[in-house]
UniProtKB/TrEMBL annotation:
Keywords: DNA-binding, Nucleus, Signal, Transcription, Transcription regulation. Residues 107-179 form the K-box domain. One of its GO terms (molecular function) is DNA binding. Residues 1-18 form the signal peptide. One of its GO terms (cellular component) is nucleus. This is Uncharacterized protein. InterPro entries: MADS-box/MEF2_TF (IPR050142), MEF2-like_N (IPR033896), TF_Kbox (IPR002487), TF_MADSbox (IPR002100), TF_MADSbox_sf (IPR036879). It comes from Solanum stoloniferum. PANTHER family: SERUM RESPONSE FACTOR HOMOLOG (PTHR48019).
Length: 179
């Protein structure tokens, strides 16, 4: 009888332990999963330049890989351009970039790039440098006179606007003093 009772308690203890083990094992597995998974990092600038460069390279390659994958898997039109701080460019485009930009323009109404306006933009940049007095050493007398007239006209408009502003301020001050 004592033997039977002892066997019963041993069996009961095994059942309890196996139940606890299963329960604890699940908890253990969940904890292990948490430990083995990638830890979250705080998103802030990496101060160590070597670590920053390694992270940049890995993440750049990851982004380019994901872009290629979504392009192949989903037949999506994808374009990614990444500029490093060194100025080096890395890119991926599943279709010609011009086609993607045109599609973007059609859908949003905003034009990010337009080849036909590129030359006009370059000319405006040159004109702006001339107005600042830069790159005018090759100008002849006539071109310098035209530039001088343009600057004088601009200066006149600025002074007129400034005088108008001062008149309005005086008028506001007088109205406030009268009240």
């Amino acid at each position: 009888m004592l033997m039977l009772l002892l066997s019963f308690f041993l069996l009961l203890e095994r059942c309890m332990n196996s139940h606890l083990l299963r329960r604890n094992n699940t908890t253990y597995q969940e904890e292990k999963r948490k430990e083995m998974g990638r830890g979250k990092i705080e998103i802030k600038r990496i101060e160590n330049s070597s670590n920053r460069h390694v992270t940049y390279s890995k993440r750049r390659n990851g982004i380019l890989k994901k872009a290629k994958e979504i392009s192949v898997l989903c037949d999506a039109h994808v374009s990614v351009i990444i500029f490093a701080t060194s100025g080096k460019m890395h890119e991926f485009s599943s279709t010609p970039l011009v086609d993607i930009l045109d599609q973007y323009h059609k859908l949003t109404g905003r034009r990010l790039w337009d080849a036909k306006h590129e030359k006009d933009n370059d000319n405006k940049q040159i004109e702006l440098r001339h107005l600042k007095g830069e790159d005018i050493s090759s100008f002849n007398c006539r071109e310098l006179m035209i530039l001088e007239d343009a600057l004088e006209n601009g200066l006149t408009r600025i002074r007129d606007k400034q005088n108008e502003f001062f008149r309005m301020m005086r008028k506001k001050t007088q109205n406030m003093e009268q009240e």
